[in-house]
Amino acid sequence: QQYRRQMKRYNTLLLGSGGREAAIAWKLSQSPLMDKFFIAPGNAGTDIFGTSLAIKPTDFEAVYAAVCEHDINLVVAGNEDPLVQGLREALSAKAQTDGRELLIVGPGADGAALEGSKDFAKDFMGRHGIPTARHLTVTKDTVADGDAFLASLKAPYVLKADGLAAGKGVLIIDDIEQARRSLREMLAGQFGSASAKVVIEEFLSGIECSVFVLTDGNGGYVVLPPAKDYKRVGEGDTGLNTGGMGSVCPPPVADDAFMA
């Protein structure tokens, strides 16, 4: 107890409103380093762990105002939207100007681009020799190239909005003519600005899972347990993608050999 009293304690602000943030809030609230805990905007699942603030995570002025009002010294970004838009840079600049000590969990916009742009991520994987499905990025001006690339693939056809679409920007289509129509609908704004560019991708059949790694940016890292997402609604994966539904963690497929 005496040791714990001597440790620095953190007034913490968690950004986000999804199931992921509920899980993060549950675990953060157990830390002996936690002092006051706020979630913006939070949800019914986070209310039992901290105080909800009616703030959009992408409203950086409002987020920093909350940092000042509640003497926050740790900000945790739960979802990717604010990170892609430059949350880390915006808060760091304001804190530095004010001489405020502020730790931020989450990458800068350059690192977040791996999640924020599928075209960027594909290019990154190509440059670094990371295996990935065959693909082509298409815009309104290169639809004909997209049609030709679709013809080179076997069904089903995968269309992905380049930007963030709340986990719903992926279409998997069995018919090539429908795929061509859907490509044009996406480029016309089906997913807003997120589908101004569309990545057409070779379909790979199999089991997927996500492996999350926390890094300090200087070579230190820790691997978290893998998780498997279930996106398609309806029995037998028959429907459209959702934002993802819950699962056990870690999934049985991710045994020691797989992780190695």
The N- to C-terminal Cα distance equals 39 Å
Mean pLDDT: 91
SSE order, as H and E? HEHEEHEHHEHHEHEEHEEEEEH
Strand content: 15-25%
**Low-pLDDT segments:** none
C-alpha geometry:
globular
Largest beta sheet: what is the strand line-up?
A: 3-2-1-4-5
How many helical elements?
10
Please give the number of β-strands: 13
* Major sheet details: 5 strands, parallel
Structural class category: alpha/beta
Task: Explain what this protein looks like in three dimensions.
The protein has 260 residues and is α/β, with parallel strands linked by helices. The protein contains 10 helices and 13 strands. It has helices at 2-6, 19-28, 60-69, 81-84, 87-98, 109-116, 118-127, 143-151, 176-190, 256-259; strands spanning 10-16, 34-41, 51-52, 74-77, 103-105, 135-138, 157-161, 170-173, 198-201, 213-215, 221-223, 230-232, 241-245. The strands form 4 sheets. The chain has a 5-stranded parallel beta sheet, sandwiched between helices. Strand 10 (213-215) and strand 11 form a beta hairpin. The longest helix is centred in the C-terminal third of the chain and has 15 residues, at 176-190. The protein is globular, with a radius of gyration of 21 Å.
